[in-house]
Every structure is written in structure tokens, then in C-alpha cells.
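Predict the 3D structure for this chain.
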Amino acid sequence: MTYSQKLEEKTVGKMIALYCRKMHAPGESKLCEQCQNLLDYARKRIIKCPYGRQKPVCSRCKVHCYQQQKREEIRQVMRYAGPRMIYHSPLLALRYLCRKLFLPEPKLNNKKRE
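Done. Predicted structure below.
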């Protein structure tokens, strides 16, 4: 797993945890089953990203690798947790923002993923 993929996974995991604690399981340290399934699904998608080492943040990606239902679920999570990330995990939020704003558009090549 590349550094970019690890950062993306950590960021998504933190966002899902924030969302779940507020919406599904207040005061719990574990994710509810629905959020755990979403996190597992997101991890698989991140690992299988066709961009490989040049993986962009998912919000800038041109390839829609999430199923429609999962895409809606993750959108809800990101709408809620995104603005709150700066308070709960400022370093992750800043890294994400820098990668989103300053990394060049990756080129999708048809070679096998690295």
C-alpha cells in the first residue's frame, strides 16, 4: 500500500468514526455494523485504485469505483465529518487539503497497478 493510499484510508476511517459516533453510536468507541461495512468497503476500493502510486484524493478522482449506494453513504459521511476534521484531526485535515489542492492531476495508465 502506498503512502497516499495509507493517508486516504486513515482519513476516511477517521471521518467514518466521527460520523458514526454522532449519528449511530453516541459514546461508543466501536463503529456500528453499517459504518464498519462502509469502512471495509472503502479500504477495498482504496487498495484497488487504478491510479496506484499516483492516487488522488477520492473527491478529485474521475473514476467512480464506489457502487451508487456506497457512494451516497460516503458522501453523507464526508458532508458531516469533513468540516469537523479540522477540530478532531487537524494534521490529517491539512494533509488532505494540501493533497486535494496542490497535487497535479494524475494520469491513468492502462498498465497493471503497482
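Residues 3-102 form one domain.
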